[in-house]
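Q: what sequence does this backbone want?
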């Protein structure tokens, strides 16, 4: 499991970009929970995420 936080950026689909504390794991997440992984550097082989869900405080 990777916990991400919303950034000020938007992805190609216009949805918010989220990233982990290191900035290495980045993803655009739609309002329907669809996830698109974003490369944050070279030599990454991105996989399709299995699940994305919001954490409740």
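A:
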């Amino acid at each position: 499991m990777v916990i991400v936080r919303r950034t000020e950026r938007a992805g190609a689909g216009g949805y918010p970009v989220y990233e982990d504390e290191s900035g290495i794991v980045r993803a655009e997440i739609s309002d329907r929970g669809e996830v698109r992984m974003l490369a944050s550097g070279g030599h990454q082989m991105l996989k399709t995420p299995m699940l994305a869900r919001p954490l409740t405080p």
